[in-house]
Amino acid sequence: MAVKLPEKFPPLSPDARQFLSRLIRVDQAGELGADLIYAGQHRVFKRSRPSLAPLIRHMWDQEIHHHKTFDDLQNKHRIRPSLFSPVWKIAAYGLGMGTAIMGKEAAMACTLAVETVIGGHYNNQLRELVRILEEESRISRDGQASAELRALAKTVSEFRDDELEHLDTAVENDADKATPYVILTETIKTGCRAAVWIAERF
Amino acid sequence: MSVLLRRPLVHLLKTQFSSALSRSYHSYDHLPYNPYTPSQEKILSSALKYVPEFGFVKQSLVQGCRDVGYLDTTHAVFQAGLFDLVKFHLYRERTKLAALKPQIDEEEGKSIGKRVRRYCIERLKGNELIISKWTEALAIMALPSNVPLALEELAKLSDEIWFLVDDKTADFDWYTKRASLAAVYSSTELYMTQDNSPSFEKTWEFLDCRLADVHNVGSKVSSLASWATFTGFASINLLKSQLSRG
């Protein structure tokens, strides 16, 4: 008699569950922030530089899609959203509007700083996800990890590619001509890293 | 001395507070994590059968062990003692709710309010058999060392109900919704222990009043928020028009 194997994978380890819930929480908060940064920039550029608005609109639309995807994942997997989501909303919209008022170069420097941190952050998550996927494929019947985690890894890698594309757009649009470039980008990068640390946990 | 005093507190905050905050990832492709071993589950469920008679006391646990063929002293494996029995009741009644989803979806229709009410009633009915002993359980849960885990269970119940009614909140409202439902549920649960009306009619009335209160406050908060947004934008526009006039 053939032994019937269980259809589901064994329970995830507490570490894996913590990793996955932090991943979804921080990415949801991050995409919420990105959505609102571009919303803030678009609001300003729509009037001050209409020629730039479509480019921002394109990036904004991608972020809206990312944001919605992570909202759905957060609900589907029953993850607590970040406790500070009202703070992220105000900070992100303010950052978007503020840099856009400073000018095109400052807005692009802001994009560059944010997307650098987020791109690296997505890469770190992917590395850990791939490790979990490999572990799962070893115990799986068909040599494949669970569809759920494979889909999650695919989403994260797609979004990383989108963010890196935004980074290229920022470089092509004179992000490095912003003054004071280093102070601006380093401040935003530090702020982003702090926000990532907080949003993962709270 | 101070180190000795501080350590348990730090430990308590680290384990219990963080476990309450880091709600777990809910998977569809993996088996759910079961906090109980099969033998623990057997002992605790047979012990619960004695609760209507003896209450949340050691005797129920001892009888439970005896019934499934363990020595009387086996109850010592439950480190939290009677609180483990209470927790198991909470866990079992909470996890039962999910099976009612198809039925409730069909009978209560689309209204979120109606479905939330129905889940509350179904969960409260889980206390029906032991209602005369429930104050004992409440006293056990109110012991300082048990409070964090008891609150965590309450939070999980509230989260379970919002999940079962397909709530899709992705911002801070997630917290307000869960907190207000938890407050409604726990006050109704307390009311139910004092209710002598036939088939707990008064309790369901009380529940309806509490749910209506939350609904009123909720709509007042959201109208306050839209008022604030409107006023904010109006003042910015006013400022702009004044500035452009020079």
Q: How would the blueprint of this fold be written?
A:
The complex is a heterodimer of chains A (202) and B (246).
Chain A: H1 14-48, H2 53-76, H3 85-102, H4 104-139, H5 147-172, H6 181-201
Helix pairs in contact in A: 1-2, 1-3, 1-4, 1-6, 3-4, 4-5, 4-6
Chain B: H1 2-21, H2 38-48, H3 51-54, H4 58-67, H5 82-96, H6 101-108, H7 112-125, H8 134-141, H9 147-164, H10 173-193, H11 201-245
Helix pairs in contact in B: 1-9, 2-4, 2-5, 5-9, 7-11, 9-10, 10-11
Folded structure, characterized:
- The complex is a heterodimer of chains A (202) and B (246).
- Chain A contains six helices and no strands.
- Chain A has helices at 14-48, 53-76, 85-102, 104-139, 147-172, 181-201.
- The model of chain A has no long low-confidence stretch (mean pLDDT 86).
- Chain B has helices at residues 2-21, 38-48, 51-54, 58-67, 82-96, 101-108, 112-125, 134-141, 147-164, 173-193, 201-245.
- The interface between A and B is medium-sized, with 35 and 24 residues.
- Chain B: One of its GO terms (cellular component) is mitochondrial inner membrane.
- Chain B: InterPro entries: COQ9_C, Ubiq_biosynth_COQ9.
* CATH architecture level-2 label of chain A: Up-down Bundle
Measured distance between first and last alpha carbons of chain A: 51 Å
> What is the structural class of chain A?
mainly alpha
Which spans of chain A of ≥5 residues are poorly predicted at pLDDT below 50?
none
| CATH fold-level name of chain A | Ferritin
Number of strands of chain B: 0
Radius of gyration of chain B: 23 Å
| Biggest sheet details of chain B | none
Question: What is the domain tally of chain B?
Answer: 2
What letter string, H or E per element, gives the SSE order of chain B?
Answer: HHHHHHHHHHH
Largest interface: A-B, 35 and 24 residues
How much of the sequence lies in strands of chain A comes to: under 5%
What share of the residues of chain B lie within helices? Answer: over 70%
